[in-house]
Amino acid sequence: MFVVLRVRGSAGKKKDISETLKLLNLTKPNHCILVPKNPVYEGMIAKVKDFITWGEVSNEVKKKLLSKEKDAKLFRLHPPIGGYERKGIRKGFNQGGALGYRGEKINKLIEKMMI
Description:
Layout: E1 2-6, H1 15-23, E2 31-35, H2 39-47, E3 52-56, H3 59-68, E4 75-76, E5 100-101, H4 106-113
Parallel strand pairs: 3-5
Antiparallel strand pairs: 1-2, 1-3, 2-4
């Protein structure tokens, strides 16, 4: 299962990206959802990869998220304590930024956002 977190705001988006973010229920920055690993969601994630970060969620973080809010579809998180990575929210994770695929490292970011 993937955890998908919206990092960037709404400025400069194309219409098809806005629609995909709405379908994923990621309407604002710091909103987070859990999605299964299947080709449909992977295609949607690939389309909006410049606005989100994602990775495999651990069981511990999943339990914390589900206990935090009753609605299991959308989680509203705080900005991360200590901020995002050094190069900001416009660069990919591999380049030192916050966007893109993180793998297991997404769990550390989600824990920084849960106060």
